[in-house]
Amino acid sequence: MNPADDPVLTALAAAGFPVATFTDEQLGVFRTLGAEELALLLDLMARLDEVEPEVQAHTTVAGGALF
């Protein structure tokens, strides 16, 4: 399945998650997220983005899930 065909992966990519760099195993985990789990991840990403400088170096944490 193309990641662009999955609404969860599309939402994560739109929020700035590096979906294209995820492994097949990571994509599989993200595809199983429920609506509440997705909302939580998107909220966390938005809140982290609010407190970080506009440009920053990214560090891989938890297999690239959060940076």
What is the β-strand count? 0
Individual helix count: 3
Mean pLDDT: 82
Instruction: State the order of secondary-structure elements, H for helix, E for strand.
Output: HHH
**Spatial extent as radius of gyration:** 12 Å
Largest sheet: none
Given helix and strand content, the structural type is mainly alpha
Task: Quickly count the domains.
Answer: 1
Q: Please identify the oligomeric state.
A: single chain
Low-confidence stretches: none
**Helical percent range?**
40-55%
Q: First CA to last CA: what distance?
A: 25 Å
What global shape is seen?
globular
- Tell me the β content: under 5%
Polypeptide structure, described:
- There is one protein chain.
- With 67 residues, the chain is mostly helical.
- The protein is built from three helices and no strands.
- The longest helix is centred in the middle third of the chain and has 17 residues, at 35-51.
- The protein has one domain (3-51).
In short:
By secondary structure, this protein is an all-alpha fold.
Task: Please render the helix and strand layout as text.
Blueprint: H1 7-14, H2 24-31, H3 35-51
InterPro entries: Aroma_sacti_dom
What attributes does this structure have?
single chain, 67 residues, mainly alpha, 3 helices, globular
